[in-house]
């Protein structure tokens, strides 16, 4: 299994960015996927999750209304559109595979993680 | 949201020591508790699911237990390669929240 993120960078507050995650080594359309972020040197915060067919999507309250998760099963890719970025969104964004079909399955596990792509929001 | 609290936030131990990390949930999560290990510059890796189920390939020196609101991760016979930060995570109710992490250093 490989998850490779891209699209991070330095951006001013209020601007937008689109993150991508290329997945390989597993049947992408069979699993839920997530974005989890990590402020450098700090802990982990779940950001958003999407089920296998994009029919169930959820967001952390801190990003609801500003971030949009999506996936393209044909391209085996996961995306995160980040709009109205804030300084506090600065973090390493990991693409994460769920062991389940649905992102809110009780007992679910994040079984594979990408290395992450760094988003820095600063003026 | 369910709050997860780990203790200690960091510890230093010698090779061969037995190390215990605690994780407390703000409400009953039954056994829906996962443990992850993150080494510097690496992505997190799941060690244990369902409070005590060791993932394939994880060394048997790692074990975990607990239910309800109190959980522990134990490393029996600490090895140099165990230097990492460990996180607990509840998967009982969304959002799947993490503890703040416990950094394990080797003396």
Topology:
The complex is a heterodimer of chains A (123) and B (107).
Chain A lengths: L1 E5 L2 E3 L5 E8 L8 E6 L5 E7 L6 E3 L7 E6 L4 E6 L8 E8 L11 E4 L3 E5 L2
Parallel strand pairs in A: 2-11
Antiparallel strand pairs in A: 1-3, 3-8, 4-5, 4-9, 5-6, 7-8, 9-10, 9-11
Chain B lengths: L3 E4 L2 E4 L4 E8 L7 E6 L6 E5 L3 E2 L7 E6 L2 E7 L7 E7 L11 E5 L1
What does this structure look like?
The complex is a heterodimer of chains A (about 120) and B (about 110). Chain A is mostly beta strands. Chain A has no helices and eleven strands. In chain A, strands 2, 4, 5, 6, 9, 10 and 11 form a seven-stranded mixed sheet that branches. In chain A, a hairpin with a 6-residue loop joins strand 5 and strand 6 (about 55-60). Chain A is globular. Chain B has about 110 residues and is mostly beta strands. Chain B is built from no helices and ten strands. Chain B is globular and about 35 Å long.
| Main beta-sheet strand count, sense and barrel state of chain A | 7 strands, mixed
Radius of gyration of chain B: 13 Å
* Count of strand segments of chain B: 10
**Roughly how many Å apart are the termini of chain A?**
37 Å
The overall average pLDDT of chain B, rounded, is: 97
Number of DSSP strands of chain A? 11
Strand order of the largest sheet of chain B: 2-10-9-4-5-6
Largest interface (CB < 8 Å) = A-B, 21 and 24 residues
Roughly how much helix do the residues of chain B carry, as a percent range?
Answer: under 10%
Spans of at least 5 consecutive residues with low confidence of chain A: none
Helical stretch count of chain A?
0
What percentage of residues of chain A falls in helices of 4 or more residues? Answer: under 10%
């Amino acid at each position: 299994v490989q998850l490779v993120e891209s699209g991070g960078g330095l951006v001013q507050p209020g601007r937008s960015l689109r993150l991508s995650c290329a997945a390989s080594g597993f049947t992408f359309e069979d699993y839920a996927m997530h974005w989890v972020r990590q402020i450098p040197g700090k802990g982990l915060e779940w950001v958003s999750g999407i089920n296998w067919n994009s029919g169930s999507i959820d967001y952390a309250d801190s990003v609801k209304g500003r971030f949009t998760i999506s996936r393209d099963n044909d391209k085996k890719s996961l995306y995160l559109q980040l709009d109205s970025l804030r300084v506090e969104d600065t973090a390493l964004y990991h693409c994460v595979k769920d062991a389940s079909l649905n992102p809110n399955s009780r007992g679910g596990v994040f079984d594979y993680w990408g290395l992450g792509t760094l988003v820095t929001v600063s003026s | 949201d369910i709050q997860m609290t780990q203790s200690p936030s960091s510890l230093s131990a010698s090779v061969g020591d037995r190390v215990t990390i605690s994780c407390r949930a703000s409400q009953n999560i039954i056994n829906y508790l996962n443990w992850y290990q993150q080494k510097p510059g690496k992505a997190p890796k799941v060690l244990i699911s369902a409070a005590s189920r060791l993932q394939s390939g994880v060394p048997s020196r790692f074990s975990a237990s607990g239910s309800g609101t109190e959980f522990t991760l134990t490393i029996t016979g600490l090895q140099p390669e165990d230097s990492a930060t460990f996180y607990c995570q509840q998967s009982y109710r969304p959002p799947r929240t993490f503890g703040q992490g416990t950094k394990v250093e080797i003396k």
